[in-house]
Amino acid sequence: METLEEAELCFPQLNTSCRKRPRSQTEAIVIYTLMPCFSLITVVLNLLVIVSISHFRQLHTPTNLLLLSLAVSDFLVGLFVVPFEMILAEPCWLLGDLACVLCSFLPFISVPATAGNMVLISIDRYVAVCDPLRYPTKLTQKTVKGLILLCWVYSVLYNFLFLFDNLRQPGGFNSCYGQCVITVNGTVDLVIRFIIPISAIIILYVRVFVVAVSQARSMRSHVTAVKLQRSLTVTVQRSELKAARTLGVVVAVFLMCYCPYYGISLSGYSLKMGSSVNIVMFILVILNSSLNPVIYAFFYPWFRKSVKLIVTLQILKPLSFQAKVL
To answer: Domain G-protein coupled receptors family 1 profile: where (predicted)?
Structure first.
């Protein structure tokens, strides 16, 4: 009997050792089969987005730079965050208290970085649709690059503050030895990293929708305008509205995938790494990162053309960066 009890402990030689958490067959399949598959899909799809926008000169636009930043954050989720989460999901934490906090750092970066990129994308669409004449001067490539850098710096610095108590007292929130518990202020995190950015996104997109409806009515009422001028105006406006609709789908998917996590965080939830709830929440994060490139494939012809050129290795040809993909 004593041997059985000792076998259930993470560290049988310690009286303060945690007991090994039993794992169901379903949970094991999710962790060791589904998560690696999602990881591979996320890495490959977002790498295609990164290569496409980086390589082809025609795609070097402010809007696409924002999509590139979003793809980088999604790529990091698949490449680094998934393996870390698989380690954190083990029944016993064997790497020490400081490693527990450090392994949690990178996963937490992806959330504010993704939310920040979504806000920037919403601002881009707002200016493009609501103030199209001044859009080229307001959101230049230099300005967008500065905003992207600011977004990533904010994400890293906020995480230091977010995990400060855990870094100051590694393992201070564990109830037994062999446990990895990260305690966060769920209310503060909910407000700063979710409510504020999501409110900004919703407000901006409501404004874009109102202006889009107004423009549609205006185009229908001015059928007697000069044909060439009307054709050019309609083409430009339709292009901007189509981009707004596509990015609106991206934002909607983001909301559906991240709302459950922040709903739980509202109560000041002590995040126990490896718990079933944490695994489900994390799968939603991975799903969001893998769905974004799929959305681009459905809505953006340039992405499909770029992928074809990449897969067929035509990007290795000289001057391939000048290929017409738009």
So the answer is: 45-296
